[in-house]
Design goal:
With about 425 residues, the chain is α+β, with helices and mostly antiparallel strands. It has twelve helices and 26 strands. Helices cover about 20% and strands about 25% of the residues. A hairpin with a 7-residue loop joins β10 and β11. Bound molecules: manganese (II) ion (MN).
Length: about 425
Amino acid sequence: MAESWVPVPPGSGFPLENLPYGVFEGSDRPHVGVAIGDAIFDLDGAARAGLFSDPSLSTALRTGSLNGLLALGREAWTSLRRRVQELLAISSPIASQDRANFVVSRASARMIMPFEVRDYVDFYSSLEHATNLGKIMRPGTEPLLPNWRRLPVGYHGRAGTVVIDGTPIVRPRGQIKQEGGEPEFAPTKMLDIELEAGFVTGSGNALGDPIPIERSREHIFGMVLVNDWSARDIQAWEYQPLGPFLGKSFATSVSPWVVTLDALEPYRTAPPTQDPAPLPHLRAARDWTYDIALEVALQTEKMRGQRASAEIVARSNFRYLYWSMAQQLAHATSNGATISPGDLFASGTISGPEPASYGSLIELTWRGTKPLKLASGEERAFLEDGDEVTMTGYCEAPGKPRIGFGSVSGKILPPR
Ligand code: MN
């Protein structure tokens, strides 16, 4: 493993091989930075000090958001990564006495949204999740609808309510209709999570020009963890025939660090075999996904009172997904629709084959019929006020650097 002048504790998910991008509140204004060990290397400060020779890159790094960098495209991203690795290496050209000026502690930094979300799409790409939801929502029928294995099903969500890790989630109100009753307007009783990961796009395409599947990698900058909060009772009443709306749009949480595809490269792997074979425009000569371990932890008010740590309620993996990111992007632009720097494409709930790997409470508790039994003695069908959910992601394998995503948390507040 490469060594940095910034200490990287053993087991840290933020070695020199990761360098995820984020934005933190500086003393004057938001600064772009990369995570390294327990610190953040201040790219805004480094640009101001003239450490990057490319003027468009220096300008982009001083905007307090990643959108400018995203727009520069893959070549710029790769050369920036190489330069930052050089600056952070033991043999750094930054003089020893100046180095402290460029780092801040991650623990004390306040992270803000790393990029302005231009458009937000949520897919439905886990075969296990789609099958489970089909069984739960439409019992007695074929769980998968006829289009599911032919295209990555998705919908356009609300970009403006994508929020950063730590943002409190107010329990939404909405129209709810119980079986046989009249609809009422009330706080959701079925507040749920969705364990997802999303990719962030860089340079876009021209209107009318689809992005061919073989070129999708050029347009994807990196990935974040996503919790797509869902109100199942609101969703069940509103979704026909146009799909998810207010049951989803009240909030979607993302992790603060964007992990680049370059950092994930050692963990690239083949996605599951698809049957039937997709149409040619969704077929890559060599398709790819990543081996990313994912965990969901829950901490209730009672557990906090007892100073008990959060309890892991699900473990899944990004590589379970049936549809790949390359296929999702090729599909989303196959009609000539454009993408822009800062678009967020979420995977859909990532459920694995085992019940303990299901990525939502509606699956884990089978619509509340099998409540989770927590070590605190409590039971949970869906989330209660005061519950805090934390999703964590990391890549790990013998002989490879550990690549961490950090985590995304949100605590449920009572309805307003
Ligand atoms: Mn979702």
